[in-house]
Amino acid sequence: MRTSRTSRAAVTVGEVFALIRTGHGTTRTQIGRATDLSRTAVAARVTALQDAGLVLERTESSSSPGRPAAGLVLNADAGVVLAVAIGRSRTQLGVCNLAGDVLAICSLEQEIGIGPDDLMPDLVARLEDLLRESGRRPEEVRGVGMSIPGTADPQRGCSLDSPAISGWDGIPLPPYLRSITAAPVLLDNDANVIVLAERRGQRDRFDDMLLIKASTGLGAGIVAGGALQRGKRGGAGEFGHTKIPSAAGISCRCGDTGCLEAVAAGWALVRDLRDQGREVAHVRDLVDLAIAGDAEARRLIRDSGRHIGEVLAGAVNLLNPDALIIAGDMAGAYDLFVAGLRESVYGNATTLATRELQILPSTHGEMSSVKGSATLILDHVLRAEAIDAAL
């Protein structure tokens, strides 16, 4: 990673911090090579970051003769961020350090249809408990990352259009957090934040990724050319209400008929099992049954993957991603779900688009939404411009 600056003086402290945070500048020599800064200029910027508590310098052992190199690393304990992943029936909360490591986590089971005035105060109280549990204080909070199912309005911090959580559209959520912190609050779609976490983690080698969150509802996070794609109104990846022949005439929770979700989303599978007289409350129950060997649960999950694959085949042709990542509750029965998905994707997409396509489970499993929400806010508060403004 080399800066595009032509003037040595123009390389800021924040840009040097970005090199250290991403691992592209772990020594002063590496930073000098990446930026063309003089040794004195590098030292000045590193000192500023050390004085702010953001960077630590550690002596690294070396097998080669001579003086060991001094390694520069992010000080992950220089603050925390709060992660909030709101779902239809469960909300996950976490406290994470500046490296995105989860220090404390919990889940809130909630009544379907609960509104923000009822959920958010309880959510804030639990975040305060988590801060105490992690041994951190509210003044150490540098930001809050939040995710919701459906389309989000990042500017207002509210749900824009989400059939999964009715009653939330248009209601700004940051004001609810002000009793605990005045730090920045960011909100985005749940699949978007998960794919951000995948990019930040071990899969940063993939510049083109398509992440599918298959849970109560369906959604996708799209990374193309290394950048998250949100679309004009934040609706990129909202593929669950694409019309498919298999769902013709079947009512969807969005109020329309014929949507993919009506035959493939978790809520639809639970509905189908209940119609057979089975006692299931959530898609997680369905997954547990499938793992235990229940034939009907296994069929429903495989058929869900097959229906979703019919729609994704077109997306694979359009985007030609390196990898198709599977996240969400149905990923708990990954092999069953992907068997159906693979059948449809490879049967309907072009040979060129699927030739090197990898289908993989999400890196963070059940913590994907918390890790993703943390990544969303960390990438904001630790970006070069934010560091420069703070210093």
| Strand ordering within the main sheet | 5-4-3-6-9
* Oligomeric state of the chains present here: single chain
Q: What proportion strand?
A: 15-25%
User: What global shape is seen?
Assistant: globular
* Helical run tally: 14
Q: Structural class, judged by helices and strands?
A: alpha/beta
Which sheet architecture does the biggest sheet show? 5 strands, mixed
Mean pLDDT, to the nearest integer, reads: 92
Regions with little confidence, pLDDT below 50 for 5+ residues: 4-8
Alpha carbon gap, first and last residue: 23 Å
Radius of gyration: 23 Å
Helix and strand run: HHHEEEEEHEEEHEHEEEHHHHEHHEHH
Number of E strands: 14
Helical content stands at 25-40%
How would you describe the overall organization of this protein?
- It contains 14 helices and 14 strands.
- Helix content is 39%, strand content 20%.
- A hairpin with a 4-residue loop joins strand 4 (90-97) and strand 5.
- It has 391 residues and is α/β, with parallel strands linked by helices.
- The protein has helices spanning 13-21, 28-35, 39-51, 116-133, 174-177, 190-200, 261-264, 266-275, 283-291, 295-319, 334-348, 351-354, 368-381, 384-390, and strands at residues 55-59, 70-74, 80-86, 90-97, 102-109, 141-148, 151-153, 158-161, 185-189, 209-214, 218-224, 227-228, 323-327, 358-361.
- A 5-stranded mixed beta sheet has the order 5-4-3-6-9, sandwiched between helices. Strands 12-11-10-13-14 form a 5-stranded mixed beta sheet, with helices on both faces.
Nutshell version of this structure?
By secondary structure, the protein is α/β, with parallel strands linked by helices. It has helices spanning 13-21, 28-35, 39-51, 116-133, 174-177, 190-200, 261-264, 266-275, 283-291, 295-319, 334-348, 351-354, 368-381, 384-390, and strands at 55-59, 70-74, 80-86, 90-97, 102-109, 141-148, 151-153, 158-161, 185-189, 209-214, 218-224, 227-228, 323-327, 358-361.
